[in-house]
Structure formats: C-alpha cells, structure tokens
C-alpha cells in the first residue's frame, strides 16, 4: 500500500475519472480523500455532450444517460415571458450522438465512478489527508495522515492534485492562483415545485430582478434553483435561509415552491493556476482553475483534464513515451482554462451586473435580439458547439500536425452516422488508431497490421464531406480520440516521423 504508480489526492469526479482511466490501462493508483464520505448533495449537474462522447471509452455513457435527465431546450425569460427558446436536439443533431444537455447530479455521478473503480480493486481511502510531499528524479514521497491518526509515507512515480480550489498540492508546489472573487453571493436550492418552469427544460430569467436559473432534475416537479442574493442580505450569507432570498425572479418565472430539500449559499471565484504542475506533480480540476457556473463547464473541464493527463501518464509509465510528453498536459489544458474563464466571465457579468444600463441591456435589448439570434441556424449551432465543448481543440500545439479537409490536427474528429453505424464506435478503444475515409494504401494497411494499431477504412460518402472530412484523408487519433495528425494519402513514413519526432511509440 505504500508504493504506487500514481497517487491521486481528491476523490471528486476529476480524481475518480483519472483513477478509473489509469486503472483500465493497468496503472497502479492510490486515491485518497480527507472527507469521511462522498458528497450527498447535487453540486455540479450538467454533463456536456463531449464528456458523454469521451465517457464511451470508460463504458460509462449508457449508464449515465439511463439514470439522468435529458434537457431538450433552454428558455430565456424577460418580464415574466419567454423571450427565446433554444431546442438542443434540433441545434446539436448531426454534430454529436448526444444533442442535449444531460443532468446527472454529482452525488450520483461520484457513486457510479466509485463503483466502477472498485471493479479494478481500487477503493477511495477516506479520512486520509496529504500533509506534504517532496520529489526528485526518482519519484514523489508523500506524507499522509490516515483515518486512525497515524502518519504514513507513500512513494509514487507521480502525484495528481485533484484536491479542489484550496489545493494542498498547489500550495506545496508554491504555484500562484491569480484571479479574484465576484461580489455577488449565490444561493443554490434543490426543490419540489410547480409551474411552467418545471417542464423538464432549462429556464433562465434575465431581468432587473435577481438572476435565477431553473435546472430540471430527474423526476416530476423537481428542480435545482441557482440565483443571486443582493442588497444587505449578501453581507452575511451564512445566516441566510431560503425564505430570506428575494421572490421577484421566482414570481417572474411563475415558480411555485412546495418543498425545499437543500439550500446553500456561496461566492464564485475566477482563477487559473500559473502552472498546471511541476516536475512529477500535477494540478487538475478546481485545483488548477475555477470559474463561474455559467454554461455548466466546471466539472466537465476537470474531467477533460483527467482524460488528457491519464493517457499521457500511462504512456510514460509503460515505456511508450518519454517524460517530455507530460509537458503537453499544461500546454493543452491551460490554454483552454484561460479561454474558459474569460468567456464565462463575460457571460456571468452580463447576467449579474447591477445598474440601469445593465438592466436595460437585459430587459430591452436582449428581448429584441435573442429571438432573432435564436432564429439563425449558424448562431444556434455555434452556441451548442461551444457549450457542449465539442469545439475544444489543441490546434497548433506540439502533438497536433497537418490538416485534411476542414479537420486539423488537435481537433475533435467530426461525428458521422448513417443511423446504424457511426465513426465514433471504434473510439471507445484506449489506444492510438487510424481512420481513413476513402482508400487506404496497401503499405499503410500493412504498417498498421504489423504494429497492432487499429485501422478503420470508411467507404467515401457525401456525409463525410459534409462533416468536413476529406476523401482519402488519413487521420491518426490519440488515445483520447483527438486528431493527432491529418493528411491526405499519408503513408507509413509520415506516421513513423510523427511518432519518432515526439519520442512516442503508439503501439
């Protein structure tokens, strides 16, 4: 128990996904958490389409879809009326197998991840706290306080800090966490209720009153309310009860509360770590970046961190790559986190800003513009692709090379389906693989067969062209299913050069 390949600090969704992915690849992990038990409240709710796509690699997607709630549309309200309705199913159809926002509360999510991890013989060690650690060229030595109060030394090749915004790992590394805290105080409440906003869709009130969003939960008449606390009530949020928050926005959305099952208040931070790791220790999830809840991006981004780092750690530990591969984790994920914080800041400031001008923008300009924007197919598609994270890419980064059609190295492979078969089916494999759309050369077929690298050749179809793929395009895919290399008629020499130049062995 005192020696492992990767020691993971923190057993939220980020740490659990990292542990699960590594375990599936045969890496020995140890995951600890200082809490006594998993969370019992539904903190993060939304699972975006890109996360559901990636979860196919962990055989999680069907279980999550079966247990959660699909949100078919978002509704924006102004002055007690619906100003715009955005149907996810119509917007996202053709882009992803999962054209919807999926609600799956974090407590259920963690429970599923823990159960799957136990299939690999790995249990979360509760009441176990990281006290400190040191590292050198040979590995990491961590000091732990166990559930019985005794201290223990654990040795690992690598350490992953998935321990939240107050990360001990980040503090030990001495990495700065610049940013700030929004002035607004938020409340969150899980309720039973009634009214037009309890129809299973997402509803957001944009008004001069308090901001309010109603997220549907599984089951009739259940919802999560997220709203702002303004005026003098925000000075002592710890003393607030649900009865103390303003009812104006609820009245605008015609929300009728029957029972409050959970209530809490919090302030929102916006920060990104100056580095995402140092030597053999890494930061993931809230330990590396925190931002506003606008768009339901937080948990999904942490899960993306875990998937990005997991295959790279496994490759290095199994001798399939040099440790320079691990440098690409920060390069790829930090850039996305910075963009995300900037984007969610803008959205957050729009929906929560005080003052006459801000109110005019939300109550006068927004009602006029939103229906017109929502009527534009291109605008709806842009919004869905952005929020669902399917546009997240690693273009122009060290592992990303070339282009074929409209697809560049570093991008997510476009999804194409004829209703029976789709080109994402093979992406459930946790390995390097090649897809060709059109004809594959005999030398490429032989090269892949010799190395045991999966090769799928798709007969060229107009649907491929419509998706942005190119005839006879060769797409080398990373173990996390992102495109590593894209080139028309690429042969064995091109692939060999790609791997050798980066110290990789993809087979």
TrEMBL record:
The keyword Oxidoreductase applies. Keywords: FAD, Flavoprotein, Monooxygenase, Oxidoreductase. Its EC number is 1.14.13.50. The keyword Cytoplasm does not apply. Its cofactor is FAD. It is an enzyme of class 1 (oxidoreductase). Residues 3-343 form the FAD-binding domain. GO terms for molecular function: FAD binding; pentachlorophenol monooxygenase activity. This is Pentachlorophenol 4-monooxygenase. It comes from Pseudomonas wadenswilerensis.
